[in-house]
Amino acid sequence: MSGVSAIVVSYFTGPVLARCVAALRAQPDISDIVLVDNGNFPGDVEEAAAGGGAALRVVTGHGNVGFAAGCNLGAAAAHSPYLLIINPDAVMPEGGLARMLANSADLSRPWLMGAKLVGPDGIEQQGSRRRVLTPWTAFVEAARLYRLAPNHPYFRRFNLHTDECPDDVFDVPTISGAVMFLPREDYLSIGGMDERYFLHVEDVDFCLRFSKAGGRVWFNPHVAVTHFKSSSRANPVMIEARKTAGIIRYFHTHFSESYPKPFLWLVDGALWSLFGVLFVKRAILKGLRLLGFSIRTGGRGLERARALARRQSGR
């Protein structure tokens, strides 16, 4: 069997959504696209659905159920043997999916493959390839202890994007949920995404559960997917709150037997303290906006997408 169902979970993504869908339709191996509409601006879904190519089905009417639940809705609506979960602000390069299919041919099941995430400037982004997230690696990353002894095994980074990029497909513990490619049966075999995670950390949790179930996670350096961050108009404070809650849930789910409870409680407090700092910073920015400064949430990502579109069209 062949064919890939692409799953796109969108929440007020803006015009870059249409670019994402157009790039997917340019992939010959895409049999259908499932757009999970968690909420979008009027006309954005219609604009994305316009045009020829692979059929696009819209799953809507459920409200904003989060990314993990949205992926599961998409997987339930998909019919192809392979799933490509891709962010609505990510653009698959021409021939990218064919390369991922070709590189997966020799992999033993179950397998999960990610791509190299790059910004519009072509530089690899944080999150493409990562180690297992533990309370200690999170502390090393947050406190930047890796700068003290970068070669010491105790101070290795969680994020690996600053390491030399491998020349070929390489197994890593964790990839980004912005691009996940795998057989549909393997996705369903571990119950899909854990819907207790609303936004963020669900991909880290999925990779760990996938590995525990006997699967291997692969990073494909040959496929560079352009990822426009900050394109959604979601409230950034709410995003960080969801992320903080997700990390805490993840630690208590997977490491409650490996770390003393008082240490985990200390980590919980530190994470919420960091969120408090962000909340105060955002409150100050909101105050500046009320005084006349123009600060648009998600504007940077949208502007980068528009700038790239102008360069590609020669304008």
Structure description:
With 315 residues, the chain is of the alpha/beta class. It folds into 2 domains: 4-132 and 159-227, Spore Coat Polysaccharide Biosynthesis Protein SpsA, Chain A, CATH 3.90.550; 236-296. The protein has helices at 16-25, 44-49, 67-77, 96-104, 135-143, 184-189, 202-212, 236-254, 261-290, 299-312; strands at residues 4-10, 30-37, 55-59, 82-86, 90-91, 111-118, 129-130, 170-171, 174-175, 179-183, 216-227. It has a 5-stranded mixed beta sheet with strand order 3-2-1-4-10, with helices on both faces. Strands 5, 6, 8 and 11 form a 4-stranded mixed beta sheet that branches. The longest helix has 30 residues, at 261-290. The termini are far apart. 36% of the residues are buried. The model has no long low-confidence stretch (mean pLDDT 89).
CATH topology tier name of the largest domain: Spore Coat Polysaccharide Biosynthesis Protein SpsA, Chain A
Number of domains: 2
| Percentage of residues in strands | 15-25%
Instruction: Categorize the overall geometry.
Output: globular
